């Protein structure tokens, strides 16, 4: 059985976002936006739209209402590149005036070769170049009495949670990844700037901050953990400072370095959610070596045991690659055995695929597609069984959840161990009438399946 959130041709972090704003005023220039890829790209889209709004542009929720369309692309995998090209083509057909940005923009010839009619191509986080391109296609026409900078910026997520990007780029040289080539080496934001943004988000009603970067645990290394305005650029200090703001704080993309254990007491004390999203990718040491991954499977199991000892309620999420070049059946079996021992709570899995420019393409002994599919299926069956058992053990427990959506049939919520889009949900189908998105509710769990929970509300603790 496969996890519906992790089909073989879809990355778990894939997101497609649209914005539905108020109607534009007469004569106001309008721009559309399609945002593809991971939450880091979503933050880039929010920043671009915030700048455009500040310059007097309206944001159109459809092609026909836009004078031009920005497509923020993903270029991490060939399947993601194909989706980006498809989105560009759709925008060209439906609108005709298209500006391309994002990770795939680092390969402009690849884009223009497929779609020569695009108006401009810019690379990842090149905000000024995107704005210049928009100005050239749709000149700004601000009304100084109406068009003001939005107090909390433009958000492409529900108002009760927000992604908080703390750095750009990555210093790792994993053979299957071209992110450092597209986004460059690690560049950390000053800690006081991150905290200032987080404070504004919380003041605007955000209840959950999702901390993202390419390598969250390396935050501040490039600036030597500089301290300014009372805040130090180290992930432990940053997590503690964020935890003082009163919102849920969830950490994504954390590599299992030894200093990560310093975060666990913050989780046990309730300052940070007891949740770690760690991209282990594999467990066999030879596969990890061929991947050029900065981790060792045996030590990782020891770290997991220590984390759970110090914070028993911690939820561990990870992603893995099966069918990496040279992966033998014995190496894959080691991964399955490791998964049995690690008992991770949330798991996603990719089938390896070549990415143009990645060093892994040149490795020998590529795995046949049917073998990759078989291994993916077996891996997900094992992960599903672990998830089913862990969720079944929660029946009868009382958990704190955050409400994401409410309709006529019930409320869709998440526990402290579930991130939006990539993890499971807790559903409330009775006694939900007074709930609203962003509420934090205590529920008693009364049912579980492979990936989701059902419960009934006991108390509404926050609105």
TrEMBL record:
Q: Which GO terms describe its molecular function?
A: 4 iron, 4 sulfur cluster binding; aspartic acid methylthiotransferase activity; metal ion binding; protein methylthiotransferase activity
One GO CC term on file: cytosol
Residues of the TRAM domain: 392-459
Where is the protein localized? Cytoplasm
The job of this chain, per UniProt, is described as: Catalyzes the methylthiolation of an aspartic acid residue of ribosomal protein uS12.
The similarity annotation says: Belongs to the methylthiotransferase family. RimO subfamily.
Q: Which residues form the signal peptide?
A: none
Give the Enzyme Commission number: 2.8.4.4
Q: List positions binding [4Fe-4S] cluster 2.
A: 170, 174, 177
Matches recorded under Gene3D superfamilies: Methylthiotransferase, N-terminal domain, Nucleic acid-binding proteins, tm_1862 like domain
Q: Which GO terms describe its biological process?
A: tRNA modification
Cofactors, names only: [4Fe-4S] cluster
Quick one: which gene encodes this?
rimO
Chief location: cytoplasm
Q: Which domain of life is it from?
A: Bacteria
The chain positions of domain Radical SAM core read: 156-389
Its keywords, alphabetically, are: 4Fe-4S, Cytoplasm, Iron, Iron-sulfur, Metal-binding, Ribonucleoprotein, Ribosomal protein, S-adenosyl-L-methionine, Transferase
Catalytic reactions of this protein: L-aspartate(89)-[ribosomal protein uS12]-hydrogen + (sulfur carrier)-SH + AH2 + 2 S-adenosyl-L-methionine = 3-methylsulfanyl-L-aspartate(89)-[ribosomal protein uS12]-hydrogen + (sulfur carrier)-H + 5'-deoxyadenosine + L-methionine + A + S-adenosyl-L-homocysteine + 2 H(+)
Q: How is the cofactor bound?
A: Binds 2 [4Fe-4S] clusters. One cluster is coordinated with 3 cysteines and an exchangeable S-adenosyl-L-methionine.
What positions does the entry give for [4Fe-4S] cluster 1 binding? 38, 74, 103
**PANTHER family recorded:** RIBOSOMAL PROTEIN S12 METHYLTHIOTRANSFERASE RIMO, RIBOSOMAL PROTEIN US12 METHYLTHIOTRANSFERASE RIMO
* Record-given protein name: Ribosomal protein uS12 methylthiotransferase RimO
